[in-house]
Each structure stands twice: as C-alpha cells, then as structure tokens.
Amino acid sequence: MGILQRILEAKRREIARLELPRIEGTPQRRELALRQPGRLALIAEIKRRSPSAGQLSTQLSVAARARTYERAGAAMVSVLCDREFFDGAHSHLREARDACSLPLLCKDFIIDERQLRVARAWGADAALLIVRCLTGSQTSELVDQARACGLVPVVEVTTEEEAQVALDAGAEVIGVNTRNLDTLEMDAVRAHRVLESLPDTISRIHFSGLKSEEDVRGVALTSADAALIGEALMRQDDPTRLLSAMVAASRRRNAPFDDEAR
C-alpha cells in the first residue's frame, strides 16, 4: 500500500472522531493576494515532520515561526494539520493566526466537508483540496463547500488530467505538485509542463522541491504566480536568512527594484 493510501485510511478514521465546531456569523472569504506585481509570491510552510523528509526542526514554536515568516517577507503561511504523519494539529492554525496577519492555508488531506468546517473554525483562510484524493464530483462539491465556509479552495494537481478536473470544478487557485504523492518521487519537468498549461485567469502555485534562492529565481521565470516553500525552511532552526534570500530572488526579470524586494 502506498503512502497516500495509508494517509487516507488514517484520515477516514480521524474524520469519524471529529468534533464539529460552530462558525458564528456569515463566513467572509479573504483574498490571498498571490498575484503580486513584479514578483513571485512565496508561501512559507509550517510542518514538523513528513514521510519523505522525516523529522524537521521544532526549535521555533508555531507562533514564533509564523512571525518569522511574516517578517522575512512571506505572502502566506501554509500549516500542516495532519497529526499522524506530519505531527500537525488544527490548533497550529490558531497559534499561527494569533501570531501573524498573513493568510493561512490549512494543508491537510481533505475528503469531507466536516474537515473544512474545522479548518475554518481554527482560523484558516484557505484549504487544500488534492485531486489525487478525490473523484471529479467530490472535487466540485468540496470546492463549493469550501467557499460556503468562507475558505478559498486551493486545488492541488500533478498532471494535465487532474488540472482539467480542477478547472471543471471551478478552481480559481491551482497548485501543481512536483512530488508524486504515491511514490514521493520529484519530477520538475512534468510540474513545469502542467503549470504552463494552466490558463492565466487563475492563480498558479508551484508546490515542492524548492531549496535555494536559485530555485526560486528559476520558478520566477515561469508562469507561476506563487511558490510554496516547505522542507527547506523547516530544516532551518531560524529560517530568516534563507527566506529573506528567497524573497529577494522572487523578483521577476525586468521588474522594478524596490526596497520590499531586497
């Protein structure tokens, strides 16, 4: 059994135990501002462990890391909420929410509307939906349900076929994962091809595999509007220097230079 199937089996057991929160008032969607003039927006991730990378740094608390990401110039924070495989928790969303003003992405293996309600209650602004984990109809339903909860659905794909599922579901934000979730192998060529196939009417995110400012500079030359940086930052007890360098490298070629891009 592949790692993705193991995660999904565990997730089904977890959903059965979920305590559904009550969301007061009418949920308001928050725009993610991932299309930034002259630069690639960077999404900095908080995850303490992963099946591919093993244990990562826990030197900084979730709150301290979120504050550090904001100070270093991140446009958004992604928070791993899966407990069994990533040492995450929904409470990490609240810790990050209380520590910074950036939009928060709940990164989990979402297969049920109840998970969306939980993410929203803990402070998420957006939720990850992975096409590989869903049918086409489930993708469409969860995209609609996310919006009804006040969340921006960020739909993850790995192939052109999955990208079409996301587009048919009405996704406005699509992330292309360099990593194959079944084998954990990386394929930057395939990811680049899928990214370039996406229409420029949506926000396009490059997921996984970026380790250096040179990597960021390369993605800034593509059609991607944003890039998610995870493992590279989480290997750093203090990610300030690396993320600051990546932010500086995110400036598009021929874009005006300004103090914020330094």
Overview of the molecule:
The protein is an alpha/beta fold and 262 residues long. The chain has a single domain (40-251), classed as Aldolase class I (TIM Barrel, Alpha-Beta Barrel). The protein contains ten helices and ten strands. The chain has helices at 3-16, 62-72, 91-99, 113-121, 136-148, 160-168, 188-197, 213-219, 231-234, 240-249, and strands spanning 41-46, 49-50, 54-55, 76-80, 104-107, 126-130, 152-157, 173-177, 203-207, 226-229. Helix 2 (62-72) packs across helix 3 (91-99), helix 2 runs parallel beside helix 10 and helix 8 (213-219) runs parallel beside helix 10 (240-249). The longest helix is centred in the N-terminal third of the chain and has 14 residues, at 3-16. Mean pLDDT is 92; it is low at 256-262.
Largest sheet: 8 strands, parallel, barrel
Mean pLDDT: 92
Range of helix content: 25-40%
User: CATH superfamily, please?
Assistant: Aldolase class I
End-to-end separation in angstroms reads 46 Å
Calculate Rg over CA atoms: 17 Å
Strand order of the largest sheet: 1-4-5-6-7-8-9-10
